[in-house]
Amino acid sequence: MKKIIIAIFVLILSTINCYADSLDNALNAGTVYGGVNTAAGVANTVSNVQTNTSIRRRIDVETALIKKQAALQGIDLRDAKDIQNEHMALYFKSCYFLIRTKKQAKYEKDEEMLKLIKKYWKPWTTEDAIYAAEKVIELQEQRQKNNSKL
Using one digit for the tens of pLDDT, what is the confidence trace for 100-126? Predict the structure, then answer.
């Protein structure tokens, strides 16, 4: 009886060991297979992103060409994004112009120009920068007219 119990115990242990080994192998195989699938999925996603980027770039170039050709014919095909880009470009040019003019006014000790810039230019808003640049240009033009009359 003792030998039968020991034999059953050994068989149960070997069965559990075999089951554990097969489960471990299955998990490893699943991990490798899943890893291959994940790598393939990532490569596919990267390929799709590159394809979509190249398609978008081509469409943007073609759209820009159509807009330029329409502009040559006198047709305005600008959209909100184009207008926003133009406005931001004007804002950055105005800011650069105001910074340069302010430095020059400090160097020349031009108090009138410094007061004008300080009065109209609030660097945290776009409209103020553009308006301030227009006012500075008006003052410069007015000074040129006064100097030409003399």
Answer: 999 999 999 989 988 988 888 877 776
What tokens were used for 17?
Answer: 């060991």
The per-residue pLDDT for range 72-97, each reduced to its tens digit, is: 888 777 778 888 888 888 888 988 99
Asked whether 139 and 112 are in contact (CB, 8 A), the reply is: yes
Tell me how far the alpha carbon of residue 23 is from its chain's centroid: 47
DSSP letter (8 states) at residue 3 = H
3-state secondary structure of 55: helix
Where does the pLDDT of residue 32 fall: very low under 50, low under 70, confident under 90, or very high at 90 and above? very low
Q: Burial level of 109, CB count in 10 A (0-12/13-18/19+)?
A: exposed
